[in-house]
Amino acid sequence: MEQNQREKRQGIRREKVRRRAFIFLWVLVVLGLCLLLEYRFHFLRRIGKEKDYLIGPGESRFSFDGQETLLVSGELLYYSDLNRAEALCSYNLKTKEVQVLEQTKGVLKKTGTGMYYVTEAVVYRLEGETLSVLSPVPEGGSEFVDFYEGRLYWLTAGEKPEKAGEGELRDRRSIYIQEPVSLNGLQLLYQTDNAVTIRDAVLVHQRLYVMADDGIYAIEPLSGETIKLSGLCSFHCVSDGVHIVFEGTDEGKKELHYYEIVPDGQIVKRTDDAGVGAVYQGKLYYNSSGLRVCDLTVADGESSLLGEVPLMCFMTVSAQGVFLRDCLQNSIWFYDLDSGEKECIIPQK
Length: 349
Prior knowledge:
mainly beta
């Protein structure tokens, strides 16, 4: 009898060990999947953003990945509502009322000169809940960069390869200036050499900064005079109109970091990691294993963890807090910087 009880206890212990080992293995698998998903969404967000615009005439300029952008101005949050046939909507942060502003598919963009909504055919200027036509969109898969001193700046695709398949995307290699009243008055401002791809472009401090595979360039927006600032391989850029921060890496390396272009043209490394980010009032907020912040006004400022947030494909920051779009359902979340609390304010399916 005692022998049977001893064997029974040993069997129970073995079963507990097996269960614990099984649970531990599942935890490792889940953690691995989470890390893989975070990397995948971050990578696709960066690359997918490029793909939205690199298309030829007659093809759609926008895809699902291009409509994740969010803007905040005063008490209004602007977003593309995928439940309303991809309409541009505003959400009042006080009353929680939603207004449909434009029943046309497009992409929101905020620059130092204003807020814009870019559709397949038209660029609108966005003020309050009013859209006013700024300019038609040139043919050929052009991406709107900015509107500055009466001129529009476009990032355009290179020539399509001879053996390219149907619908194959093209690299962006040129920046053009266009007078708003002219449909055909595109003037070449800058073009890369040796088929180098331009990843992003931003107009700040009366200079056009270009992020390309072979480095960062500063361009005079009227003459096209160009200075190469760095040989870093650069990607997506974020700015608050004062600070210019971009994701970049040394040639041949995979680890992304955030770098800042300071007013004298020097490049300063700001973080040891990177992720979906935004700049607000001199601080860089970004998602890397949680929401992190780095004070750009401090010379050697280090990033610190603020809290956990859903995996995001886009974020923007305002006086109210952080607004972000999750990668799974494209729902919109709000993160309160004071309390650390987060909530889903606009569900999307």
